[in-house]
C-alpha cells in the first residue's frame, strides 16, 4: 500500500526508516522486502496499534528514548468498514484508529 511505498522510497534515500505495524509477522516481512530492495539495513520494525492509546504512548516513548531525532512522520494507518466495536479504553474502534491514535502520536512526538 501507500505506507510501504513511502517506506521504500525513504529507505532508497538512505533514511533510517521505522515501520510502525500492528502485526509482527507482516511488518517483519515488509522490513525484509524493503531492506532487500534498497540495500538499506537501517529499516526497522516497531509494533504500534493506533486503536490503542496505550500502544501509541508506548511507541512514542520508545521512539523519543531510542532515536536521536525524527525528521518525518507519515500517518498512514487507517481502517474502514469495520463493524461497530469499542476498544478496551472505551473508544469507538474506527475513530480511535483513524483519528485519535494518529493525533495523539503526532502530538507526543512533537516533543
Defining traits:
single chain, Rossmann fold, 111 residues, mainly alpha
How is this structure best described in words?
The structure is a single chain. The chain is mainly alpha-helical. Helices cover 51% and strands 9% of the residues. The protein is built from four helices and two strands. The chain has a two-stranded parallel ribbon. Strand 1 (17-21), helix 2 and strand 2 (43-47) form a beta-alpha-beta unit. The chain is globular. It starts with a helix and ends with a helix.
Helix amount: 40-55%
Distance between termini? Answer: 29 Å
Q: How much is the radius of gyration in Å?
A: 14 Å
Q: Which architecture does the CATH hierarchy give at level 2?
A: 3-Layer(aba) Sandwich
Tell me the domain tally.
1
Brief account:
This protein has 111 residues and is mainly alpha-helical. Helix content is 51%, strand content 9%.
SSE inventory with pairings:
Elements: H1 2-12, E1 17-21, H2 24-38, E2 43-47, H3 53-66, H4 93-109
Parallel strand pairs: 1-2
Amino acid at each position: 500500500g501507500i505506507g510501504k511505498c513511502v517506506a521504500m522510497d525513504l529507505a532508497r534515500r538512505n533514511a533510517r526508516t521505522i515501520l510502525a505495524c500492528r502485526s509482527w509477522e507482516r511488518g517483519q516481512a515488509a522490513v525484509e522486502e524493503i531492506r532487500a530492495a534498497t540495500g538499506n539495513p537501517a529499516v526497522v520494525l516497531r509494533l504500534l496499534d493506533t486503536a490503542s492509546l496505550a500502544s501509541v504512548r508506548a511507541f512514542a516513548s520508545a521512539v523519543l528514548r531510542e532515536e536521536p531525532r525524527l525528521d518525518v512522520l507519515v500517518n498512514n494507518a487507517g481502517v474502514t468498514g469495520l463493524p461497530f466495536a469499542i476498544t478496551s479504553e472505551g473508544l469507538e474502534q474506527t475513530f480511535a484508529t483513524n483519528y485519535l491514535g494518529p493525533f495523539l502520536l503526532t502530538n507526543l512526538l512533537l516533543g
